[in-house]
Amino acid sequence: MDFDKIPYRYVDSVSFSVFSTEELLRQGVLEVTCAETFDIVGHPTKGGLHDALLGPSDRDEVCATCGLGFTHCPGHIGYIRMPLLVFNPVFVRTLYQLVRGSCLACHRLRSPPVACQVTLAQLQVLQYGAVAAVQELQDIANEILASDDDRAKHRGAIGSTLQRRI
C-alpha cells in the first residue's frame, strides 16, 4: 500500500455531548430488556446486550439493522429503561465538584467575582476560536492579582484589561 497516495485530512476539532432522553429514544434501535447476554449455546439473546439489531458481534455476521458486515457496520444505539434516576459514573466526579462548589442556600456556584470575569472572558474568546488566548487571559489575570492583594480594587482593572485584550 502506498501511503503517499492515501487522501487525508487534519482534524480541526472534536466535541462530545450526551444524548437527552428524547434523543436516545428517537435514535435507539432496541430497548435492552433481557438480562441474559448469551443463550446456552453461546448465541446472542434477543433483547440482550449483543442483540443483532445493535450490530454484528462476530466477523461472519451481518447487522440486522443496516445489513452491513462486521467491518462496515458502525453499530447502533440501544438503551435500558431505569425505574429510578441513575447517575452516569463518568460524570460523578464533576457532579461532586459542582455540588461542593455550590451555595446550598441560593444554589449558585461559589466563585470569586474575579474568577467569574476571567472565565467569562475566556468563554468569549473561545467563541471566536482563539484557543491560545484562553491561557493568555489567565496569565494576565494572575499578574494583576499578584501585583497587589486588594482584589476588590483590581476587579475593575481585570475586567477592563480582559475586555481590551478580547
Task: Provide a short characterization of the protein structure.
Keywords: DNA-directed RNA polymerase, Nucleotidyltransferase, Transcription, Transferase. The protein is mostly helical and about 170 residues long.
Architecture overview:
By secondary structure, the protein is mainly α. The chain has two domains: 8-86, DNA Excision Repair, Uvrb, Chain A (Irregular); 113-165, no CATH class. 37% of the residues lie in helices and 2% in strands. A two-stranded parallel ribbon has the order 1-2. Helix 3 runs parallel beside helix 5 (151-165) and helix 4 packs antiparallel against helix 5 (151-165). It is elongated, with a radius of gyration of 25 Å.
User: How many individual β-strands?
Assistant: 2
Assembly type = single chain
Rg on CA atoms, Å: 25 Å
At the first level of CATH, what is the class of the largest domain? Few Secondary Structures
Proportion of β residues? Answer: under 5%
Helical content stands at: 25-40%
Number of domains: 2
Architecture per CATH nomenclature, i.e. the level-2 architecture of the largest domain: Irregular
Shape: elongated
- Give the overall pLDDT as a whole number: 82
**What structural category characterises the helix and strand content?**
mainly alpha
Element order: H for helix, E for strand:
HEEHHHH
* CATH fold field value of the largest domain: DNA Excision Repair, Uvrb, Chain A
Q: Superfamily at the CATH H level of the largest domain?
A: RNA polymerase II, clamp domain
Number of helices: 5
Low-confidence regions:
none
